[in-house]
Design a protein that fits this description.
Elements lengths: L1 E5 L8 H5 L2 H4 L2 E5 L4 H7 L4 E4 L6 H11 L4 E5 L4 E5 L5 E2 L3 H14 L5 E6 L10 E3 L6 E5 H6 L6 H5 L7 H10 L6 E9 L14 H14 L4 E7 L13 E7 L1 H16 L3
Parallel strand pairs: 1-2, 1-4, 2-3, 7-10
Antiparallel strand pairs: 4-9, 5-6, 5-10, 7-9, 8-10, 11-12
Length: 273
C-alpha cells in the first residue's frame, strides 16, 4: 500500500508529514501541483515528492492521484491531519512508531474486504465502542482499493466531470456511489485523526459558502432522497475565509439508506441474471 499526502500552498506547513516518525515519513509520498514542486522540495528536501501536473480542485487531484498510483491499494491523508490511538478506556493517547505501522497495516488488510477504509475523526470517536464500523461518513484520511473502484466505475470526480464547477464533496460522492452500488465502506475507530479546517491553502483557496452549497446541491441531484442541505449556525470555521455569513452550508446524508438502496438494486438485478 502506498501512502500519499496531497498538499497545495502549505509547503512550509506540513503538519501531517512533520508529525510522523522518521521511519513512517519514508513510507510517504507528498503530492503537489504544477509549479509547486520546487517550493515543496525546498521545505522538505528529504521527502519523496510527486508532481501531478495541472490540476483543478481536490476532486480532480484525488482522482488523478488514484489513477497515477503504482499500487491498487493507497492511503490518502490530508496535509493537516494528526493522529492518536485509542486505549481500552476509549481515550485517545499519543502514538508510537509501531502504532503507526499497525494502523496502516490495518487499513491495508481491510482493503481486501472493503473498497474504502477510513480512520475515525477525533470528534465523537469515543461514542463508537467497536474497533471497526461499517457504512458511514469518512473524510480526510482513507484507504482506497483502486481495482474495485475502476471495475465498478467509482471515482472521486464523477460530479466534476459533469460540471467542472463542482470541485468539493468528492469523498462524499465516492462513498455514496459505493453504497448505492451495493458496497460497504468501513471506518476504523481504534485510531483517530484531528484536522483543523478553515486554514489558508488547500481547499481554502477555492472554497466559498456559495460553492459549498452548489456542490451539495449537485450531491442531491446525483443521489435524490439521500442528501439534505442544512445551515450550520455560528460555525467554528467558515467555508470561505472571507465569507461574511454567520453560517456554513452543510449536508446531512442517509448513509444506511444509501446502502439499502444499493443492496435492493443488487438483489433485483440478480433476478434477471
Amino acid at each position: 500500500m502506498k501512502i500519499y499526502i496531497p498538499t497545495f500552498m502549505r509547503e512550509d506547513r506540513q503538519k501531517c508529514y512533520n508529525n510522523l516518525p522518521p521511519k513512517i515519513q519514508k513510507m510517504v509520498t507528498l503530492v503537489t501541483h504544477s509549479g509547486r514542486y520546487d517550493i515543496l522540495k525546498e521545505h522538505q528536501p528529504k521527502a519523496d515528492i510527486v508532481d501531478l501536473g495541472k490540476t483543478d480542485g481536490i476532486a480532480d487531484v484525488r482522482q488523478k492521484l488514484m489513477m497515477a498510483s503504482k499500487t491498487d491499494k493507497l492511503l490518502i491523508i490530508d496535509d493537516s491531519c494528526t493522529f492518536k490511538k485509542r486505549n481500552k478506556e476509549l481515550r485517545l493517547i499519543d502514538m508510537t512508531e509501531d502504532d503507526y505501522v499497525e494502523m496502516f497495516n490495518m487499513v491495508e488488510h481491510l482493503l481486501d474486504e472493503y473498497p474504502m477504509v477510513g480512520i475515525s475523526d477525533q470528534a465523537g470517536n469515543n461514542r463508537v465502542p467497536e474497533s471497526v464500523k461499517e457504512i458511514g461518513r469518512s473524510y480526510s484520511c482513507y484507504g482506497v482499493n483502486r481495482k474495485v473502484w475502476v471495475e465498478n466505475d467509482i471515482s472521486f470526480d464523477g460530479m466534476y466531470q459533469k460540471n467542472n464547477e463542482i470541485k468539493l464533496y468528492e469523498d462524499f460522492y465516492a462513498i455514496l456511489k459505493l453504497l448505492t452500488n451495493g458496497f460497504k465502506n468501513a471506518i476504523i475507530y481504534d485510531y483517530a485523526f484531528s484536522h483543523a479546517h478553515g486554514k489558508s491553502g488547500g481547499n481554502s483557496t477555492i472554497r466559498t459558502n456559495s460553492l459549498q452549497k452548489k456542490c451539495i446541491e449537485s450531491l442531491q441531484e446525483t443521489f435524490p432522497g439521500l442528501v439534505k442541505l442544512v445551515q450550520k449556525q455560528n460555525p467554528s470555521w467558515k467555508a470561505g475565509l472571507n465569507d461574511e455569513d454567520e453560517f456554513r452550508w452543510e449536508c446531512q446524508i442517509s448513509w444506511q439508506d444509501a446502502y439499502k438502496r444499493g443492496s435492493t438494486s443488487s438483489s433485483l438485478e440478480s433476478l434477471f441474471i
